[in-house]
Amino acid sequence: MQKYSIFSLIKNAFSNHQNWEVAWKDPEPKKEYDVVIVGGGGHGLATAYYLAKEQKITNVAILEKGWIGGGNVGRNTTILRSNYMYDVNNLFYEFGMKLWENLSQELNYNVMYSPRGIINLAHSDAQLNAYRRRGNSMRLNGIDAVMLGREELKKKIPFADFSSSCRFPIFGALMQPRGGTARHDAVVWGYARQADYMGVDIIQHCEVTGFDVQNGKIQGVQTSKGNIETNKVGLCVAGSTSLLAAKLNMKLPIESHVLQACVSEPVKPFLDHVVTFGAGHFYCSQSDKGEMVMGGDLDGYNSYAQRGNLPALQHVLTEGVAMFPNLSRLKMLRTWGGIMDMSMDGSPIIDKTHIEGLYLNCGWCYGGFKAIPVSGWTFAYTIAQDQVHELNSKLNLNRFHSGHLIDEKGVGTKTWIG
Amino acid sequence: MLEIKCPYCGKRSQNEFSYGGDANIKRPLLGKEVSDKEWDDFVYYRENPRGNHSELWHHVSGCRQWFKVSRNTATHEIFKTAKLNEEL
Predict the structure, then answer these.
(1) In this structure, are residues A119 and A274 in contact, taking their beta carbons and an 8 Å threshold?
(2) Do A140 and A241 share a domain, yes or no?
(3) For B1, which residue in chain A has the nearest alpha carbon?
(4) Cβ of residue B76 closer than 8 Å to a chain A Cβ
(5) pLDDT tens, position by position, A149-167
């Protein structure tokens, strides 16, 4: 594989950049694979990459209905963080943060990891106390967390509304300095290029139409490009998980909902961090191009539409303007929607199933992007070893029967309520 | 913007309503012996279809009545609404 570097860039400049190798091939599916991953998004590509790199299984196919990176990995707000309270989430996402830190070097692809810090604003004493508790929980797990007072915040985010007369005055904040953002497309392309190089077949425009299950074991998948034999199938299809599960007569503790995000016109740099509004559900950061990248609540009803409605967007941006009044002067450039696999306790599922050889990776709710490396790493382990890793042992499907829910947000089974 | 026809008030904008989830979920009968699986299915497990979906909505900023809606989850088209004791 051609290594990307300043020297290869200069070398290729002499030939007008016409002679770059293709980053990944476009193969036809073989008759048989050791592992088939359904879904060519961030999680599917990362799983295939770690199957090849960590588990030494390279006879792997990724089947993608559309094109790689066209789903939620191209529809998010690119935020990375590990600022949770429960140990299970803290340890899982922090393992992921460590992978993010070295990802550009590992993939030889600049994923533009930007540890600009994520600031969670608090708007009451009680909320500040809750954030202190969460920060302490993070620090006990070796994760960076600092509390910020109003004066420190005024230096970091001077454009926020610090007046005492506003409806939700800022009391302070919890900050994870290593949190930040990364470039979503680069993550997709970086994983795809390395996985392809190690022998993974990335098969685009290939829809899975059914599964071949005999005696409780996976024997293969039926696709729009013919039948493929395999003994192991991993599902990484986010909002479409229930649809594929229905083909296997499985019902899941998941509802699919549309989540919108948007970017404004580009402006000069004025926000150096990712900031979340504590009195509602709104977060924003400024992209390298200068656009304000913003998001918040779900539209709030079951949807597979990949587009939302204005009421949810208006609600979210009203909160944004309450936090940064100057946002009201910006024009909107684009809005879009993605289909979230909302699990019933708000936490993901990475597990085996009752069908031998069928593995499940779903339930990411709002937070799938940051989890791409750790999800791929643990899912690859689970598939290759046919057992869960310590990191994802509690993210099991059975918790909805055993009662060991991971209700980090404390919203119960209606995770679609903001 | 969805326009939802409340069976009591007529067509109103989405802003007046809140969502209540799948309308086909049946709570196990009170006083009946219920297995863990029946209860878990009721609380957590959903069909989550792509296409026609029967669901509950609440006219929270209007008459405050709950009612049923038949809606397509892929296109957001609303086919029919009905009172809780009526068939969709």
Answers:
(1) yes
(2) no
(3) A309
(4) yes
(5) 999 999 999 999 999 899 9
